[in-house]
Amino acid sequence: MEVIKSDIEGVVIIEPRIFEDSRGYFFESFSEREFVEKVCNTHFVQDNESKSSYGVVRGLHFQRPPHAQSKLVRVVEGTVLDIAVDIRRGSPTFGRYVAVELSAENHRQLFIPRGFAHGFAVLSEKAVFQYKCDNYYAPQSEGAIAWNDPAIGIDWRIPADKVILSAKDMAHPLLAECEELFDYNENLY
Predict the structure, then answer these.
(1) Which alpha helices (DSSP H) does the chain contain, by range?
(2) Which of 107, 118, 131, 172 is catalytic?
(3) Active-site hit among 61, 107, 118, 172
(4) What is the spatial distance between Cα 3 and Cα 8, in angstroms, rounded to a whole number?
């Protein structure tokens, strides 16, 4: 696998080696040994999958300590714009984000470390989205920020009148209003 650094330290794009022939293709989607060596020393404990239609925006979600999560995400059908927002107070990149198009065609994955909010927008007719988490889901530790926070300024590549949100995702606070975020100097692993 090739690891591509983003503009924010710790957030990386992973491109697998694809082996194609007349039968189709094969690739190794995850190797813990290689991941720990090249990306981060963490252990994934939960896999999740969602299916969404065009215009769905999910996010921007995170889990607070002690249940903070890193995520390794990919798309197995369709195309999404995947977003990671730095929410570590004191970070030189606090409030900045990385946006990466993930698709079934490009096989790219994005690693979102602890201390980041995560979300995605479905750009295709439908998308099947998979993610690995290195901590179990804990509802009491849920946190989120508004998907359309103007201070962050994400271009979701979906016209505003076509965005589909859950009731929960419509009600999240702006980043400036969030009290329980992460500390850049705290070791989250």
Answers:
(1) 32-38
(2) 131
(3) 61
(4) 14
User: Is residue 131 among the annotated active site residues?
Assistant: yes
Q: What separation in angstroms does the CA of 125 have from each of 39, 65, 131, 175?
A: 32, 36, 20, 30
The helix/strand/coil state of 70 is coil
Prediction pTM value: 0.95
CA-based end-to-end distance of the chain: 23
CA gap 152, 155 in Å, rounded: 10
The H or E element spanning position 116 is: strand 116-122
Structure tokens that stand for 145 in this block? 């920020």
Token pair 């009148």 is at which residue?
161
| 4-57 per-position pLDDT tens digit | 999 999 999 999 998 989 998 898 899 999 999 999 999 999 999 999 999 999
